[in-house]
TrEMBL record:
This is PH domain-containing protein. It comes from Aeromicrobium endophyticum. InterPro entries: YdbS-like_PH. Residues 77-151 form the YdbS-like PH domain. It comes from the Bacteria. Keywords: Membrane, Transmembrane, Transmembrane helix. The keyword Transmembrane helix applies. The keyword Transmembrane helix applies.
Length: 170
């Protein structure tokens, strides 16, 4: 899911789009598994007893738990994207209400990354971007292949700063 063309500036091109690492879906997957197994077990225990309403109550409760514990976290993960263009970094998130943050590459003055042991094993990390504003830096958590993304951002920032220096000297 890339940045829509209607949100792009003239001459802007998408360099890379990413979302958080799939490890964020581990707990929702466990919730899905536990709810389905528990619901299946309870329905099997009830069997043909009663008029069948208890089975439908279990299915309804399981459906609510699956939506709340698995589907909503999945949609939240899927719709939370980081897009790097040749002019800016755009963070977009939200299911019903979309929010975003934009940092122009020309305002970035520091790019760093952090990786703990789990991140190193799973091949992800946190990218921290500080810009020339009073807002806190943008932390892109659990970015897959964080070193490559860091390198790409850093190269684009250097190119942007270099072109600004060349424009000022002319």
């Amino acid at each position: 899911m890339s940045l829509p063309r209607k949100l792009m500036i003239d001459g802007e091109q998408t360099v890379e789009t990413t979302r958080t690492h799939v490890k964020r879906l581990f707990l929702p997957f466990v919730v899905l598994l536990v709810v389905c197994v528990a619901a299946g077990f309870l329905i099997a225990q009830i069997g043909d007893k009663g008029d069948g309403k208890a089975g439908w109550v279990i299915v309804a409760i399981a459906a609510v738990l699956v939506v709340w514990g698995s589907l909503i976290p999945f949609l939240s993960w899927y719709l939370w994207t980081y897009t790097l263009t040749n002019k800016r970094i755009v963070e977009q998130k939200g299911i019903l209400t979309r929010t975003g943050r934009v940092i122009p590459l020309s305002r970035i003055n520091d790019v760093a990354y952090e990786k703990n042991l789990n991140d190193r094993i799973l091949g992800c990390g946190t990218l921290i971007i500080h810009d020339a504003s009073e807002q806190a830096g943008l932390e892109l958590d659990d970015i897959p292949r964080v070193e490559a993304f860091h390198r790409t951002v850093t190269n684009l920032v250097f190119e942007r700063h270099e072109s600004q220096r060349n424009d000022e000297s002319v």
